[in-house]
Specification:
The structure is a homodimer of 325-residue chains. Chain A is α+β, with helices and mostly antiparallel strands. Chain A folds into 2 domains: 7-147, 60s Ribosomal Protein L30, Chain: A; 164-314, Phosphoribosyl-aminoimidazole Synthetase, Chain A, domain 2. Chain A has helices spanning 7-20, 67-83, 104-121, 173-182, 187-191, 193-200, 207-214, 227-238, 250-254, 257-263, 267-273, and strands at 29-31, 38-41, 46-55, 88-98, 126-134, 139-147, 164-168, 219-223, 240-244, 279-284, 294-302, 308-310, 313-314. Chain A has a 7-stranded mixed sheet with strand order 8-10-7-11-9-12-13, with helices on both faces. The first copy, chain A, has a 4-stranded mixed sheet with strand order 3-6-4-5. In chain A, strand 12 and strand 13 form a beta hairpin. In chain A, helix 2 (67-83) packs parallel to helix 3 (104-121) and helix 4 (173-182) packs across helix 6 (193-200). Chain A is globular and about 60 Å long. Chain A starts with 6 loop residues before the first helix and ends in an 11-residue tail after the last strand. The mean pLDDT of chain A is 95. At the A-B interface, helix 1, strand 2, strand 3, strand 4 and strand 5 of A face helix 1, strand 2, strand 3, strand 4 and strand 5 of B. Strand 3 of chain A pairs antiparallel with strand 2 of chain B, so a sheet runs across the interface.
């Protein structure tokens, strides 16, 4: 076989075989890829499951993201949803559709990204099955599973007045990276490549999900669509008000301020409304001992006229919508 | 809200809410749609998982299939893979991408098809989560889960010389339906609408999967890419030869012979090489008592020069390839 072989030339079975050969073995896989279905251990007697889609020209551009980047990001964006339930990621399935002229080398690079994402973000987890098909554009749909290990799942609906609001991970860095990639000149993206890297290969704090659950988190989600929109989701699901303390966001703004100035953007907007950091946003009782990954950024108040405030101003729950953009 | 509202107009959250409202509740869902992830019961301590993709203009045409048809087929094609492991389907996730001008009425029809597929093919199973995104073409990725209820999973690799080969469900009917839809004139498709229906809304014998496992099936898969190709997969995975008895296929040919004559096609080719019936193909020890859903169509012989025979002729393992077509 040649480095330049395409998927159309060698067919589904051969392309899948070469891709699967590069995956890691998961600790939970009883039957791995290659049969009608995989079999995965769920010693807890329950499993957590979530699914997410990445679509060419809507969620990514092939001239910005390598196959490796996309494989890595597909893992990151899905295991963060598992972590947000207080579960440990165990197994994933990947449905991939690519144009027929896609090279097998690209597929192998994608598989390497899947493997690296599992190994660095969710050790023990692995891709246990998948599907390869043909389409005009690249489509990636990942389903991720997790083990609650006996814990009660942490929902969005459990925040209580008096709780504190805290975040583990970064805010605004992925949005900064996207803005740098979209900027008319390429020099700023090169100058702030660590922000571009967060956009291309997010680094959500997966282990913090289990730590938060063990610390008694009353609600949790992963920040995929921006702090304001996702904090609003907790407020509505829990029927409470969330008040974010602007002063406590300064540390997040500081790390992206230079990039914002360079391209004439607002670091504060990135922190409040930028998606795709896949950090964990959680609420805890005021007397809880927070895992050190979590920084307090606000508080939970009784339900009122508006669900979301920044200090004493109403904060709009705007952010990313995966349909309307 | 209006019947003519589009997904782009009302946004992801509202469109998802209207879709989710039409789904049935599954017996296994501990946490259903609406949080970062669902939680599903797996009392067996293991779960079965499989994923499959359906892509507009590659796997279906919107002028042939309604939203309802596609939802129903998405369930059928995935729970058949669960059944082929000897498991009972429990829960599914659905990742759906549609153009922004798709009406919410179409989405609701799709959700109704998901529900009907679960209720009629896999009672107790339900869609527990999903994702809605925007794309130029309709893209559907379903992940299905099942419970082995303590049984050993039935793999493709367990067929033994001396076993019989048997099938539960139809052969060639879905391919006949596709050929009728593709035929230049529309009259034959109308005349044989029960075959077109199998193509649009397959009726795999899901319960037969558990029955086969209980009866000691040594290997099993679902016939998605055609009898020859899928029998070849069992032969190779099990390192045996499979010999199909042409005379035992006559009953399958008889039900599609008239349609084949009407459009100048070969009923025998549809039975041997036509995909998408999603019937269950299994091997059993010669002295096993087969569930009555299964009809014997061949036998398993020791490995030899060719893995697949039709009577005394080598049978090519051709069929459907989801990449090369």
């Amino acid at each position: 076989m040649q480095k330049t072989d395409t998927v159309a030339k060698i067919g589904e079975s051969a392309a899948l075989a070469r891709t699967i050969a590069r995956l890691n073995l998961g600790a939970s896989a009883i039957v791995g890829p290659g049969d009608d279905a995989a079999v995965v251990a769920s010693p807890d007697g329950r499993f957590v499951v979530t699914t997410d889609t990445m679509i060419e020209d809507h969620d990514f551009r092939l001239d910005w993201s390598s196959g490796f980047d996309l494989g890595y990001k597909a893992i990151a964006t899905n295991v963060s949803d598992v972590a947000a339930m207080g579960a440990k990621p165990t197994a994933l399935t990947v449905a991939l559709a690519v144009p027929g002229d896609t090279t097998v080398a690209w597929l192998e690079d994608f598989a390497d990204g899947l493997r690296a994402g599992c190994e660095s973000l969710a050790p023990g987890a692995a891709v246990v099955g998948g599907d390869l098909a043909s389409a005009g554009k690249v489509f990636i749909a990942v389903t991720a599973h997790g083990d609650l290990e006996g814990r009660v799942p942490v929902l969005r609906s459990g925040a209580k007045p008096g709780d504190v609001l805290a975040v583990a991970g970064t805010l605004g860095r992925a949005a900064a990276g996207l803005a740098l990639l979209q900027f008319a000149e390429s020099e700023p993206a090169a100058a702030f490549d660590e922000l571009v890297d967060v956009q291309l290969r997010p680094q959500p704090p997966i282990a913090a999900g289990v730590l938060a659950a063990n610390a008694g988190a009353t609600s949790m989600l992963d920040v995929s669509d921006g702090l304001a929109k996702d904090a609003g989701r907790i407020a509505k699901a829990s029927n409470v008000t969330i008040q974010i303390d602007k002063a406590l966001l300064q540390g997040f703004e500081a790390t992206i301020e230079q990039a914002a100035m360079r391209i004439g953007a607002s670091a504060s907007d990135w922190v409040l409304f930028g998606g795709e950091d896949h950090s964990l946003l959680a609420t805890f009782a005021a007397d809880a001992t927070l895992p050190r990954e979590f920084k307090i950024i606000g508080r939970v108040l009784p339900a009122g006229e508006n669900p979301l405030w920044l200090d004493d101003k109403v904060l709009p729950e705007r952010g990313w919508d995966s349909v309307t953009g």
